[in-house]
Design goal:
The chain has 12 helices and 13 strands. By secondary structure, it is α/β, with parallel strands linked by helices. It folds into 2 domains: about 220 residues, NAD(P)-binding Rossmann-like Domain (Rossmann fold), CATH 3.40.50; about 140 residues, no CATH class. The strands form 2 sheets. An 8-stranded mixed β-sheet has the order 4-3-2-1-5-6-7-13, with helices on both faces. A 5-stranded mixed β-sheet has the order 9-10-8-11-12, covered by helices on one side. α1 links the parallel β1 and β2. The longest helix has 21 residues. It is an enzyme of class 2 (transferase).
């Protein structure tokens, strides 16, 4: 069986750009399409990644307006992470949405359309779907600043009869249920969907599932992460915005409506570090659906530092349980502080993508979590 994989990236902000970059270090993986809010690039023989990354430098997950004074609205559903929020009309009911200016560059030549490979479009996701017969897998490097945005995108691929793989790096627990509700449509289309396939959920969810194998009963799973973002902050404003929704007194709606100025003020109030406890993170439902433990026994928190590249705390997974012979213990998994977000998010995402392609080619369709699939790179 041919193990070569062609893939597309929806969104060329921080996550999307890093995916294209990291993919150059993975054998047999060829990016053939990418899109952002302004344009699309497609070359089934393989994109020129160097040129594309140069052209999209500065695609940022900014607020809805360049001046930072106008809040986003549910109707605008703008694409943080420089993503393609994407399509005609902007109506939530019809499964489409429009983006507002989310790049440093201004005007019609911003983002992918600045590339020699890019073409301007008002329907970037639809344009990728139209080319999907030649695409084995699609990474959704999109924000989820409406809870059902990524599930709606998946539904559109299924509605178009796409046969292949969809992978996302979403965070919210409730989104998993929305994807599960679409399982029949995904299976009928021939789609294998791996949800929450980044670091957490994703890599760390899988680590927790492995650590749990020592026990016959798992008491609790504690995931504590640390991320330093100084050098990548401009390309990761959407990620920061989504994280803010987990702070006390905030939710996804208030975070979405914040101006860039308000976000900067909040970060300044916290000295550049945001600390999170008891986040609504999909690790809980993903571990429960894999039979590891109850969702209520999983806790996720961490520290985000947007003024330093160094991690403010070591990323750690602790699984506590009881063995078959009655011993109580804790298995601990740590990520080295030297490993970057690119390594720990995009590396696993591509590993899950390849594993999902192998499953898809074997006829396994539906929705999977990172505890169900082992990365293949």
């Amino acid at each position: 069986m041919d193990d070569d994989v062609t893939f597309a990236v929806l969104g060329t902000g921080g996550i999307g750009r890093r995916t294209l970059d990291v993919a150059r270090h993975k054998d047999g993986l060829t990016p053939v399409a990418a899109c952002d809010r302004n344009g699309v690039a497609v070359d089934h023989s393989g994109l020129d990644v160097d040129e594309l990354l140069d052209a999209t430098e500065g695609n940022i997950a900014s607020g809805p307006e360049a001046d930072g004074d106008t809040p986003a609205t549910p109707e605008s559903d703008y694409a943080s992470d420089g993503g393609a929020a994407a399509v005609e009309g902007g109506s939530v009911d019809d499964g489409t949405a429009t983006a507002t200016d989310g790049v440093k560059q201004a005007g019609e030549d911003a983002g992918i359309v600045a590339s020699a490979q890019g073409e301007p479009t008002e329907t970037p996701i639809d344009d990728v779907i139209a080319e999907s017969d030649g695409i084995d897998a699609v990474l959704l490097a999109l924000p989820n600043l409406e809870h059902d945005f990524i599930p709606r995108v998946a539904e559109r691929f299924a509605g178009a009869g796409y046969e292949g793989v969809l992978v996302d790096v979403l965070k919210r627990s409730r989104v998993i249920g929305m994807l599960d509700d679409r399982t029949d449509a995904l299976e009928e289309s021939g789609i294998t969907f791996v949800c929450g396939a980044g670091a957490t959920p994703g890599f760390l969810t899988g680590a927790a599932a492995l650590a749990a194998q020592s026990f016959v009963e798992v008491e609790d799973v504690e995931i504590w992460w640390g991320v330093g973002l100084k050098s990548g902050y401009e390309d990761n404003r959407g990620t920061v915005r989504e994280d803010i929704a987990h702070l006390d007194g905030y939710d996804i709606e208030t975070a979405r409506e914040m101006s860039e100025e308000a976000i900067e003020e909040l970060i300044a109030e916290h000295g550049g570090q945001l600390e999170f406890h008891d986040m609504e993170h999909a690790d809980d439902v993903l571990l429960e659906r894999a039979g590891i433990c109850d969702a209520e026994d999983v806790s996720v928190g961490g520290v985000l530092d947007v003024r330093s590249d160094e991690k403010p705390t070591t990323t750690t997974v602790r699984v506590t349980g009881t063995t078959f012979d009655g011993e109580r213990g804790t298995n601990t998994f740590e990520l080295d502080d030297a490993t970057s977000m690119e390594a720990n998010v995009n590396g696993p995402a591509l590993g899950y993508l390849k594993a999902a392609v192998l499953r898809n080619r074997a006829g396994d369709y539906g929705v999977y979590g990172p505890a169900d699939v082992m990365p293949s790179f």
